[in-house]
Q: What sequence folds into this?
């Protein structure tokens, strides 16, 4: 556009010069017809150039609108895809939790349950990576910043990778900071970034290999270093390792799995926190090292470790629970899990029947799906909150949609909590336990 403006300015100068020549010719007693023809030719050229400029501007606007439309459609598609994939994963996850409670049924049952649980976790992680890549690309990732300790971030990341390490019979060595320090950031997102690195290290390290985690402080920065004894990174791939969908050579078996998204998401999250990330490797079969560097919080006190969250109290008595879910498999498995934990559960297959039950009965907790036929979860909770009851139930929304705006809309409608499918059994029972203790 700058070049076009410069060209237009030159045309203006040429037209003014042509006009000056016509005026001088007339004053000198000449007809000036030749100069006039030159002027008309220049005006015609200028008109054509202006028309081309207008057409180019319109075309650029159309291309921009098309790109924005496609980006919006892509985000909507990914959100719908995640929702449709999470719905069948939810009952599978619930069923795996039920199998865990039936250890005496068959000696192979714990092993089968472990396989199902790990694969469900892996599928859920792939879905989250896809959505995170889309959010980061479109600039829709928001951070809930607070002062958090580095060791707390490490502990949360280790929780995520522990089962993967154990499954592959690998050795995990972790050295937290002796004198913990604080950083400014989003605990969940930073733990996600660091767990991505750890999962990646385990994935590309053979069974029986070693993954080492070090935390070091240098000046006003803390360094999170992960070393592995895995397959290493080829020199040609190393400069591109953090690019979206970039992967090294794979065998047809694709035993390492993945979509080539995790490292790109990690880099973006680290940079959003004012940090940086780097990868090092001496080459094939020489292992890898990833280093995340984060700035220490200003005026952060030293030697102050983050407090562990208080353990959830067990319910003093069973809770009366209304479960509103239209998927029969999800509803049946979740009902069984809740009843095995000592709660009384009433099930409604749609929103309207759920509201009807809430009007005629008293419940301590409502577990409600958002995507319900007839009346969706938002409508359900609005009507429940309008009931003139002495006791308002603790309401938990459950949905396959995981965008931040989905959670905000649910909380705004009247839910106390918002959980994304597949929901961890411990999370649901923990929330109900808190409610039971308060009741």
A:
């Amino acid at each position: 556009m700058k070049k076009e403006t410069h060209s237009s300015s030159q045309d203006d100068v040429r037209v003014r010069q042509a006009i000056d020549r016509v005026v001088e010719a007339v004053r000198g007693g000449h007809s000036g017809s030749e100069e006039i023809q030159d002027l008309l030719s220049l005006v015609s050229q200028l008109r054509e150039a202006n028309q081309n400029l207008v057409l180019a501007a319109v075309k650029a606007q159309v291309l921009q609108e098309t790109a924005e439309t496609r980006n919006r459609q892509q985000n909507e598609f990914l959100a719908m895809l995640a929702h449709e994939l999470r719905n069948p994963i939810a009952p599978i996850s619930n069923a795996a939790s039920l199998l865990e409670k039936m250890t005496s049924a068959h000696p192979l049952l714990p092993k089968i349950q472990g396989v199902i649980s790990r694969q469900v976790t892996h599928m859920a992680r792939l879905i989250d990576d896809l959505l995170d890549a889309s959010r980061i690309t479109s600039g829709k990732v928001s951070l809930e910043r607070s002062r958090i300790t580095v060791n707390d971030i490490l502990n949360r990341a280790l929780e995520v990778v522990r089962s993967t390490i154990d499954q592959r019979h690998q050795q995990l060595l972790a050295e937290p900071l002796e004198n913990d320090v604080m950083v400014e950031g989003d605990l969940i997102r930073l733990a996600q970034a660091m767990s991505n690195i750890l999962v990646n290290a385990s994935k590309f390290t053979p069974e029986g290999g070693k993954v080492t985690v070090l935390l070091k402080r240098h000046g006003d920065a803390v360094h999170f270093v992960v070393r592995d004894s895995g397959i290493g990174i080829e020199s040609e791939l190393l400069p591109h390792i953090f690019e979206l969908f970039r992967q090294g050579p794979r065998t047809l078996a694709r035993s390492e799995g993945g979509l080539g998204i995790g490292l790109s998401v990690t880099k973006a999250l680290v940079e959003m926190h004012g940090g940086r990330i780097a990868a090092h490797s001496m080459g094939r079969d020489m292992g890898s090292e990833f280093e995340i560097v984060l700035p220490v919080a200003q005026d952060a006190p030293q030697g102050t470790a983050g407090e562990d969250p208080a353990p959830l109290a067990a319910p003093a008595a069973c809770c009366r629970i209304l479960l509103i879910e239209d998927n029969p498999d999800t509803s049946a498995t979740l009902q069984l899990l809740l009843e095995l934990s000592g709660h009384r559960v009433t099930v409604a297959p749609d929103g309207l029947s759920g509201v009807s039950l809430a009007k005629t009965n008293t419940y301590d907790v409502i577990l409600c799906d958002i995507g319900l036929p007839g009346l969706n979860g938002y409508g359900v909770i609005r009507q429940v909150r309008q009931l003139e009851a002495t006791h308002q139930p603790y309401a938990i929304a459950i949905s396959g949609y995981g965008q931040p705006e989905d959670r905000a809309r649910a909380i705004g409608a009247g839910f106390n909590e918002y959980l994304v499918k597949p929901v961890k059994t411990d999370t649901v029972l923990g929330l109900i336990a808190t409610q039971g203790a308060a009741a």
